[in-house]
Design a protein that fits this description.
It is a single chain. The protein is α+β, with helices and mostly antiparallel strands. It has two domains: 44 residues; 73 residues, OB fold (Dihydrolipoamide Acetyltransferase, E2P) (Beta Barrel), CATH 2.40.50. Strands 1-2-3-5-4 form a five-stranded mixed barrel. A hairpin with a 5-residue loop joins strand 2 and strand 3. The longest helix is centred in the N-terminal third of the chain and has 30 residues. The chain is rod-shaped, with a radius of gyration of 39 Å.
Length: 141
């Protein structure tokens, strides 16, 4: 403890040119230490890492199909047990694809010309239909 008191007292006695010299020397010493640590840190960070190659998952491919036409009601008795009650027709009235959805989006768009997007599926009876995920209604309807 006496050593610290002696160092403190001798630092208090420093005045003028001697104080500036010691301050400049200590500044240069710590500046040099900082540069040296930065150099070592840079050398360590630039070394090659031995990580195995990062494998990314395959990109998600959108497998949905899009059709354009008028959404019309069809009697669900034609397709028993399938809950198919809508069909997409072209301008001449010819059926394009049967439509099925989990919610009421087809009933809301009934009678309107729209673009439907979904996944093509096959029913138990072998009938192809579109499981609709999105209905885009034209603003001109």
């Amino acid at each position: 403890m006496q050593l610290l008191k002696d160092i403190y007292n001798s630092a208090e006695d420093l005045r003028g040119r001697k104080l500036l010299t010691i301050t400049a020397v200590l500044t240069l010493i710590f500046f040099g230490i900082g540069i040296f640590i930065g150099y070592l840190n840079n050398r360590l960070l630039n070394q090659n890492e031995n990580n195995p190659a990062v494998t990314l998952p395959p990109p998600v491919v959108d497998t949905s199909t899009t059709f354009f036409g008028k959404i019309s009601y069809v009697n669900p008795d034609y397709y028993p047990g399938e809950e198919i009650s809508y069909v997409l027709t072209d301008a001449s009235g010819k059926d394009i694809v049967l439509l099925k959805a989990d919610d009421d989006k087809l009933s809301l768009a009934e009678g309107l010309t729209a673009k439907v997007k979904g996944k093509e599926m096959v029913s138990k009876a072998g009938t192809k239909y579109l499981m609709v995920k999105e209905v885009i209604i034209n603003a001109s309807n």
